[in-house]
Amino acid sequence: MENKIIPTIFALDSETFEKKLKILEFCDEIHLDFMDGEFTKKSTVSFSDMKNILNYPDKNFQVHLMAKNPIQYINQIKLLGIKTVLIQEEVFETCDDLGNCIHQFKDLDINVYIVLNPTTGFDRVCKFFEIIDGVMLMSVVPGAEGQAFIENTYNKVKELSGMIEGSFPIQIDGGVSIENSEKLKNCGANNLCVGSYISSSDTPFENYQKLVDSIK
Fold first, then answer.
1. How far apart are CA 28 and CA 20, in angstroms?
2. Is the pLDDT of residue 172 over 80?
3. How far is Cα 66 from Cα 56, in angstroms, rounded to an integer?
4. How far is CA 74 from the centre of its chain?
5. Continuous segment of H or E residues that includes residue 192
6. How confident is the model over 110-135, as pLDDT tens digits?
């Protein structure tokens, strides 16, 4: 399975979003953070503020829905041509609710990853291994950029990797840098989402390339 570095756009206002989108023009795949202000304390730009991604039809955009009711955004996501959604396991009361949300997105040919917070176990997500397209493990608490990487993530990656045996990608989000990227790959992670280390850097392309080289 291919290993990927996926730069992240974390933006609390439209000006920052546009600036980071321009910075990351060199990337084929971009991770968009969306926060509704309920699941997280702060809210990011709205989907209408993301409309300029339509100017990049050849890029693959994925969106991390840090939202209490992810399905309410399904039409906006489809209109923007976003190919993958990442939904938080913790917002669903029951497995049936989680399953219904997965199926509604997949019925529109949108890929679905389930996101697990640092303290969330695998009890519910394992029921959906056959239908989801990936799992993203948070290595920070969702809601802010630039947080310190949680070391227990390595153990969690190893555990999940042993459970799925390469059947879909394991993605990591939060505190990823050149200091931990190779170790994450060696533990079994495939996709690494990287925010401030790339988009807030004076040398975004160089930092991106360093990370790509570290997980080859």
1. 14
2. yes
3. 24
4. 17
5. strand 191-194
6. 999 999 999 999 999 999 999 999 99
Tell me how crowded residue 3 is: count the other CB atoms within 10 A of its CB.
Answer: 16
Sign of torsion over alpha carbons 153, 165, 127, 73: positive
Q: Which of 88, 41, 49 is nearest to 69 (CA)?
A: 88
pTM for the structure as a whole: 0.96
Q: Please give the single-letter amino acid code of residue 128.
A: F
Contact 160, 137 (CB under 8 A): yes
What's the confidence (pLDDT) of residue 133?
Answer: 98
Chain-wide mean pLDDT for the chain?
96
In this structure, how many other beta carbons lie within 10 angstroms of the beta carbon of residue 38? Answer: 12
Q: Which fold has domain 4-214?
A: TIM Barrel (3.20.20)
Phi, psi of 49, rounded to the nearest 5 degrees = -75, -15
> What are the C-alpha distances in Å from 157 to residues 4, 63, 82, 162, 168?
16, 21, 26, 9, 13
